[in-house]
C-alpha cells in the first residue's frame, strides 16, 4: 500500500482527478482519498515513483506520508 499527502487536494473534483491519474497507470488500483486529511492510500502493483509522477502530472503536490 502506498500512502501520500496531497497538499492541494481540496474537493471531490480533486479526488476524481487524482483517482483517474492513478488508475491511468494501474487500472486495477484501489484508491482511498481523504479530502479533510489531504491523504491518499493506494493499493497498486505500480511503483511509488510511477504513481507519484502521475499524480504530480495531474497538477498535485505529492509527498510520501
TrEMBL record:
Keywords: Metal-binding
Gene Ontology terms, MF aspect: metal ion binding
InterPro entries per record: Heavy-metal-associated_CS, HMA_dom, HMA_dom_sf
Residue ranges constituting the HMA domain according to the UniProt record: 1-63
Keyword Metal-binding: yes
Metal-binding is among the record's keywords: yes
Domain of life: Bacteria
SUPFAM superfamilies: HMA, heavy metal-associated domain (SSF55008)
Protein name, as recorded: Heavy metal transporter
Source organism of the structure: Caulobacter vibrioides (Caulobacter crescentus)
